[in-house]
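pipeline/complex-builder :: batch 7 item 3
reading input block
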Amino acid sequence: MKRRKFIKTSLQAGSAFYLGLNANCRGEDQQAHSTISLKRSTLVEAKSYRIRDTYGKLISSQVEQLLNKAMTRLLETEKPESAWQKLVKKDDVVGIKINCLAGRGMSTHLELVEAIVEGLRSAGVPDRNIIIWDRANRDLEKAGYKIQTNRNKLKCYGNDQVGYSRRLYEFGEVGSFLSNIVIHQCTAIINVPILKDHGIVGMTNALKNFFGAIHNPNKYHDNCGDPYIADVNMLPDIRKKIRLIITDALTAQYEGGPPYMPQWSWQHNGLIVGFDPVALDSYGYHLIEKKRKEKKLPSLKEAGREPTYIATAADKAHQLGTDDLSKLQIIQV
Amino acid sequence: MKIKQLLTRREFFKNSAQLCGLGTCWLASSMPISLLASKTEKDEIYRKEARYFEKLPNRKIKCLLCPRECVIDDQETGYCGVRENHEGTYYTLVYGRACSANVDPIEKKPLFHFFPGSKAFSIATAGCNVLCKFCQNWEISQARPDQINSYTLFPADVAAYAKRTNCKIIAYTYSEPVIFYEYMYDCAEKGHEVGVRSVMITNGYIQAQPMRDLCDVLDAVKIDLKAFTEKFYREIVAGHLKPVLDTLILLKEEGMWTEIVYLVIPTLNDDPKELKQMCKWIIDELGADVPIHFSRFYPVYRLRNLPPTPPKTLEMARDIALDAGIHYAYIGNVPGHEGENTFCPQCKKVIIRRIGYQVLENHITARGQCEYCNQKIPGVWQ
């Protein structure tokens, strides 16, 4: 069985059992995270129309290649494993935060998560140190992921599996319990949101994805999520642990979100990677507006749901990143 | 029937301790273990279609229970966190899913003119439709049902337990009963079937039709009027003032016994001008006989930077209410304060003497009159 096929089988719901492989150990012990010299607000967008078969289904190997292209460009390395080694250490416990609320069709794609797991393995992170997670087991299962809790293997579960902190974490208008996955389990987080329209807060991408890390997101959708979404991202345990953001824009949605509405989704066939969540959101917002214009829909501002939280995340009180597209370096590969 | 009870200091503490014990230990001693919902138990058993919502295109719904009118996408919950849109139909997730169940004195609610000295079987579920920065019960009110332990207590069970524990009242309290509306409604109906009354302890943040319908099965309501300015409601409560005032007027129209609690928070809602305006509004719109309780604030949750309310501020607020013509103004959360007692507005004598949640003397006759001067005292006494 090929390694890729194996990961796929183990993650997918319905697979009968899981067999672990030894994490690769190349003996390379590069310093993690400290050699990144790129400007924080550089984004790399990797796109390819070859990632799908004739039926529109994603081809795992092509998705992995696409991710590798984005990673090597962003981290300025020749080999993908070197890129991952710059991001994580072998003894990191890496949480891959995905987004599964909308179920199959508009959740972080399994093929992408497989490719990320491969990347982490190539950097020497053992399977037992990788946790694929979202808000609830139910959401993960609906999206096609299999719940895995064996402590010695690759893990996949929701916050409800391990609960929330009993300490209140506060910033600005937000006061929340944080997922124990964030507080007690992970030393590093890779944020893997999807790009889509949102009926209340305008759009959702990198910043909003951490509503899946707090216990009371229902309280923070007023005023298009502003300033709450920015405030959640200021919580130190989230802010400090994020190593990378990979926006899954393989399929994106410009209207009718957050549930999956196929009539308003499009195959963007792209991955956008970077370190700056505000930059990613600003660029994602731009893509959604562009598509809405093309489809003759009103802008999100005209629709009464301008995602003003993006600008708030960039303001003096937050300084989470850059929201000015003209100041971003967006590299297309 | 005349209730006259005088307690010694020793008896008072003994009774208080017993009552506290009832509250905290009752569940442990009396609740069958099987009632504790296990984590593996299906959430579906607590799911029941909501009463007030409108279906919208694309599987969206609009909640019509509270003034927020949340528009909710498929698979999402409303602001309260306990109502979920499932494929275009709206469901409560907490029907029969009580996170708290205790036996409390009715004075704890507080309701001072409603069967004084009675016990209330008090229940709550997770969730709330506002976000008060000073919430005393935020660990349940701001949680979602799957995040806290709960008991499986369906309406018939609630009525039966109330009866078994000699409670003549079921109180919907602690969190916000508006958000467990269907559960509360059915519990109240079941309670009435076995002769147990129901009281709702609420923020009054509810739409008119659900509140009117609820009046059919309730016997009294206590409203938390959290301030008398829109600014406070917007910034501290995440709500609006007007719907709460509308609910108070509706309750008067319906003839529902109503008391008001005003938690006085230093610097935020203790301006004498604001208090005078509020008291004038109460006199003009509700009348002089609606009791108002000025309660002491203690720093908690997101308002830990403020000091507890000085008793003098509470006395000032009470004086403003009495000067405005309100007949029954109380001071709460200051055990032993004179302002806990009920005074006859006619002869000025103490007709109910209280310490904390204990009724020490009651000089109101079975016909609801002052024992000393026969002045009619508003309330529900028998």
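note: The two ends of chain B are 9 Å apart (CA to CA).
queue -> next item
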